[in-house]
Amino acid sequence: MILPIIAYGDPVLRKVGVNIDKDYPNLTELIENMKETMVNARGIGLAAPQIGKAIRLFIVDTSPFEKDEDLDEKEREFLSTFKKVFINAKIVKEEGDEWAFNEGCLSIPDINEDVFRQEKITIEYLDENFEPHTEVIDGLAARVVQHEYDHIEGILFTDKISSLKKRLIKKKLENISKGKVNAEYRMKFPLLKRK
């Protein structure tokens, strides 16, 4: 089932997610719904807060990058198969040089800005079967994971841009929270007046 994506301005996007266990209600169905919602919105990642749940769960599917001509063949090949579920994730290390990449977010449609992130992370998480993993991830995959991880920490990519750029997009952000945006997918707006 395709779920509405929570828009910028909703307090759930600012909550630090809580850990869950394998008894979390309808978890398998929730993960499937998140995957369907992400694909429908043409996203490459989706975190539970973006569908209104303040829990430590996010999914990533970087396969759309396999068509990106700017990437080398090895990275395109890796990204084409990088599809994961992250439960109770904890980034334990970030390393390498910071590099800029133009990021967007399904909760903040029509706004893209350069965000600086470190190139390599070490992350501990549980998969959908609650099997533990510790992985070192780098490049674009690391960036996508960092972006989604920020969501379960109550952080948005717009928090990582300069104060000047924040001022320049302030009105756009206000409009998103009021529902004055044309997203190509279902959204739920916190400040939309209900009739």
From TrEMBL:
- Alphabetical UniProt keywords: Hydrolase, Iron, Metal-binding, Protein biosynthesis
Annotated residues for binding of Fe cation: C105, H147, H151
GO MF entry, a single one: peptide deformylase activity
> Which cofactors are required for activity?
Fe(2+)
The record ties this protein, via InterPro entries, to: Peptide_deformylase, Peptide_deformylase_sf
As its record notes, the protein acts as a catalyst of: N-terminal N-formyl-L-methionyl-[peptide] + H2O = N-terminal L-methionyl-[peptide] + formate
* EC numbers on record: 3.5.1.88
Catalytic residues of the enzyme: E148
Q: What is this protein called?
A: Peptide deformylase
Record PANTHER family: PEPTIDE DEFORMYLASE
> What does the note accompanying the cofactor annotation read?
Binds 1 Fe(2+) ion.
Q: Which species?
A: Lutibacter aestuarii
Q: What phylogenetic lineage does the species belong to?
A: Bacteria, Pseudomonadati, Bacteroidota, Flavobacteriia, Flavobacteriales
Q: What does this protein do?
A: Removes the formyl group from the N-terminal Met of newly synthesized proteins. Requires at least a dipeptide for an efficient rate of reaction. N-terminal L-methionine is a prerequisite for activity but the enzyme has broad specificity at other positions.
Q: Which family does it belong to?
A: Belongs to the polypeptide deformylase family.
Whether Membrane counts among this entry's keywords is no
